[in-house]
Prior knowledge:
By secondary structure, the chain is of the alpha/beta class. 35% of the residues lie in helices and 18% in strands. The longest helix is centred in the C-terminal third of the chain and has 19 residues, at 196-214.
Amino acid sequence: MSLSPARLDRFARHIVLPEIGGAGQVALAGKHIAVIGLGGIGSPALQYLAGVGVGRFTLVDDDVVDASNLQRQTIFTARDVGHGKATSARRWLANFDEALTVEISDSRIDADNAGRLLEGADLVLDGTDNFATRLAVSDACVAERTPLLSAAVGRFQGQVGAFAGHLADSPCYRCFVGDAFDAEDCDTCAEDGMLGAMAGWTGSFAAMQAVRVLLAGVSRFGDPQWGKLHMLDGLQPGMRTLTIAKDPACKGCGVPG
């Protein structure tokens, strides 16, 4: 694959970075990311991933845009209220860059359809808001041998973790949270509140980590950081990093006994 003069001009600020370069930009153009959940995390993450030059997206969200979403879900406008988030996000991408390939699903992702929806993706970015969905996505990623970036945000706290449970020495998301949350029991931002800029920080950081994963083995910026969970604190502010161990008994990625 080579980049046209127009694409070279569009991504010139990336190409001059030694850590990315022309090889990295070409690699990004050939990558496919599935973004699960187009809310406070998926919305800004998608904007930056499109901006960085990722060439293909699968967008999955069964929700519709509500006026209360607009303070943090930056991809939507007042005109999108009442319309499906996946359809609205595809419209934004078409206006932003007509060269992108975009597929959408407005079905709720679960254990039965996750494998089909994620098939062929080079990376999955999960920004959904309940454990049942997150665990279904994680298990499907292990089965499909697809890396997963899992991101969450609430109030003034965010977290972004990179998981590759299909690898022998790398944990999956289920290794991190265990099996106790196979239910829709997450706190919601409607109950607890959320600073919109905190969602933006978490989503943009997730996009940067996605670029690291996609450029592994291609450029100096490539570093998947499997098993690293980055905790973002908006009140202090600051960040700390935890290492998640692989659970040999994990029912998602462990070795059957």
